[in-house]
Request: fold
Amino acid sequence: MNKQEFLTQLRQELSGLSREDIEERLTFYREMIDDRTEEGLSEEEAVAAVGCPKEIARQILADAPKKADSKRRLKTGEIVLLVLGAPLWLALGIAAVAVILSLYVSLWSIVISLWAVFGSLIACAFAGALAGLGFALGGYTFSGVAMIAAGIVCAGLSIFTYYGCKAATKGLVMLTKRCFVKKEGVAQ
Amino acid sequence: MDIQLKRGLLDVCVLAAIKDEDSYGYKIIKDLKPYVELSESTLYTILKRLETANMLTVRTAEHGGRLRKYYHITNVGLHRIDVFKNEWSEIVSIYRFVTKEDEPRE
Reply:
């Protein structure tokens, strides 16, 4: 067997390894054969001294850390997938962020509308009281009393609403804080 | 021989072979031949391991119209040899202890 045959056969036998690993091994064995021929051996003798490619490959494959190799190949595959899938996962990522953001905004809008309800109840209470007073003084006693009663009911409801609004706002602020702190923790 | 023990010994052998001057694969095998028979694939594995452990560095140089890899020992590698020398006295004393039983008892 000459050098070229040896190297070709060894390359075939090592096909399970990564490309750079194979090249490095072949360079190593090529050098070993060349150094022997330089010393005066014929090419065939030099190859025979290095050994049988099949046996060498068997030893190499037995020693080779297969896990690291497959890991590396998986990594390359992952990178390719990541690049090829960029239009997809980028769009999905943006969509996910948008969904989360819109949920958050709608939570705040609920709180804001609760406060608006609170505000309008207070306005109704005052308006009811004033209008009722006006009606009563104008002679429409029954209507006036009804208006004032409605105003009082609104005032009572507004007190309930106030506590509800306060609790909702507090809850949302706390949620925001927690998310923010968590993100900060991850960043650190 | 115990694989772990042999591996450690071979590492130090290869380091010793490049201690005084940079050497290359075939020369290392030749230099070690009187002491230990080293196959090419074994040497490759050892050189890789020592390189990963920063005990030697590799450089490629031209030689007779082709490229040859030369291995150069680092301070870490020199330190490994020193450690081995110190370990050896320990191993010898363990050996004495183990073989004590063989001696005729008084």
Observations:
- The interface with chain A takes residues 24-27, 39-42, 44-45, 64, 66-69 of chain B (CB under 8 Å).
- Residues 75-99 of chain B form the longest helix (25 residues).
- Chain B has a mean pLDDT of 88.
- The beta strands of chain B are 23-24, 56-63, 66-73.
